[in-house]
């Protein structure tokens, strides 16, 4: 009799364990498929559009944003920074969402606006960044750039993507056009033209800086410019 009761008790215990495991699996599966908060992923763009005019740098990047979770993610803002450049004062701000990568007079201009990336879906869009007096004058070399994002469910700016911007491919810096973001073997003539154009931009930048220094009012000092940032 006692043995039979022990067997029955063991059977009930095993059935309870199986039931609890099944319930946990069901809840976990539901959460994973319908309620999990994911993150945004993006990848290095194969091309970009750029113009460097005086102290203004403007870039267009074709970006793909993928939501890895089930819940939608609200993208509030985007910006682009040069984390390894000590002279970089300001990030490039999101100023437009063009309809195409190649700039042109007949394109549709759309102001920045928040958007939603649905769960487990991806969106492709073109983001235009610009900043005056950013402190960075693009030379013919590689730059580490970082695309940062603000999302609705988190506070502050977060890194979305870090990649190499190959600014040495910018052969006509004063013309807003598209370049390949890959290692290219330029001809000597192309390199000569690119170097000449970059040197001209750097000289213009230096002249503008000297002009601003000469027109600064007498008696002004660096401390005046820092008065608003020091306690």
Supply the key terms.
231 residues, alpha+beta, 10-stranded antiparallel sheet, 28% helix, elongated, disordered C terminus
Tell me what you see in this structure.
By secondary structure, the protein is α+β, with helices and mostly antiparallel strands. The protein is 28% helix and 31% strand. The protein is built from three helices and ten strands; from the N terminus they run αββββββββββαα. Strands 1, 2, 3, 4, 5, 6, 7, 8, 9 and 10 form a ten-stranded antiparallel sheet that branches. Mean pLDDT is 82; it is low at 218-231.
Topology of helices and strands:
Blueprint: H1 2-35, E1 40-41, E2 47-53, E3 56-67, E4 73-81, E5 92-96, E6 115-117, E7 122-132, E8 142-151, E9 158-166, E10 177-180, H2 188-214, H3 222-225
Antiparallel strand pairs: 1-3, 2-3, 2-10, 3-7, 4-5, 4-6, 4-8, 5-7, 8-9
């Amino acid at each position: 009799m006692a043995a039979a009761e022990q067997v029955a008790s063991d059977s009930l215990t095993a059935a309870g364990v199986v039931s609890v495991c099944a319930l946990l699996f069901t809840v976990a599966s539901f959460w994973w498929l319908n309620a999990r908060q994911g993150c945004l992923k993006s990848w290095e763009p194969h091309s970009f559009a750029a113009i460097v005019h005086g102290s203004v740098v403007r870039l267009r990047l074709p970006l793909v944003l993928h939501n890895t979770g089930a819940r939608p993610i609200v993208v509030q803002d985007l910006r682009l920074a040069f984390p390894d450049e000590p002279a970089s004062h300001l990030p490039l701000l999101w100023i437009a969402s063009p309809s195409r990568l190649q700039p042109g007079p007949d394109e549709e201009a759309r102001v920045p606006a928040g958007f939603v990336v649905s769960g487990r879906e991806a969106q492709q869009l073109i983001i235009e960044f610009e900043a005056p007096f950013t402190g960075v004058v693009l030379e013919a070399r590689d730059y580490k750039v970082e695309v940062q994002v603000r999302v609705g469910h988190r506070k502050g700016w977060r890194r979305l993507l870090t990649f190499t911007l190959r600014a040495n491919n910018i052969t006509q810096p004063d013309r807003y056009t598209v370049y390949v973001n890959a290692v290219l073997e330029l001809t000597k003539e192309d390199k000569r033209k690119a170097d000449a154009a970059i040197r001209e931009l750097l000289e213009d930048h230096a002249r503008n800086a000297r002009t601003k220094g000469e027109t600064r009012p007498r008696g002004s000092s660096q401390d005046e410019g820092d008065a608003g940032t020091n306690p």
